Amino acid sequence: MRHGKKTNHLGRKTAHRKSMLANMACSLIEHKRINTTVAKAKALKQFVEPVITKSKEDTTHNRRIVMAKLRQKDAVTELFRDVAVKVGDRPGGYTRIIKLGNRLGDNADMAMIELVDYNELYNAGKAKKTKSTRRSRRGGSSKAAATAPAAKATEAKKEEE
């Protein structure tokens, strides 16, 4: 039985696994996409998504938490400066895993993991989403209320003529 065993150990001891994931996360932040095995990509996704969420709010405390996870100053700087600005309005799901097939040497399942907002091919067809505000029933829009009776009045005058 495998009750309560959430993490994939990837055939490594704890320190090796954490170092590998930190290095892969830094490479992902630097290059915006990397090729790896499917298992490592899934483990990296669980590792890097909370780090990106922390980077959305630039405080000293969050920088220190992210620095403890990533261990590379340049990657932390780029994460807070560039990546956090680009994913600021996204409520999660910052990475995408695309399966590539099997590796020639050992037939391992390969995948490409990438930051979602940096892929121009997928985002080219989609228009920029403008921020919409919620409208309550009570207030009503003054513009819509004012133009609707005026439009009906002009239509009525045209019919009379």
Q: Ranges with pLDDT <50 over ≥5 residues? A: none
Cα distance spanning the termini: 83 Å
Please state the structural category.
alpha+beta
The CATH class of the domain at 14-123, by name, is Alpha Beta
CATH architecture descriptor name of the domain at 14-123: Alpha-Beta Complex
The Cα radius of gyration reads: 24 Å
* Count of individual helical segments: 6
The averaged pLDDT comes out at 87
For the record, what is the CATH homologous superfamily label of the domain at 14-123?
Answer: Ribosomal protein L17
Q: Give a short account of the largest sheet.
A: 3 strands, antiparallel
State the shape.
globular
Write down the secondary-structure element order: HEHHHEEHH
Give the spatial strand order of the biggest sheet. 1-3-2
Percent of residues in β-strands: 5-15%
Report on the structure:
The protein has a domain at 14-123: Ribosomal protein L17 (50s Ribosomal Protein L17, Chain: A). It contains six helices and three strands, in the order αβαααββαα. The chain has helices at 14-31, 38-55, 60-70, 73-86, 120-123, 142-160; strands at residues 33-37, 95-102, 109-115. Strands 1-3-2 form a three-stranded antiparallel sheet. Strand 2 (95-102) and strand 3 form a beta hairpin. Helix 3 (60-70) packs across helix 4. The mean pLDDT is 87.
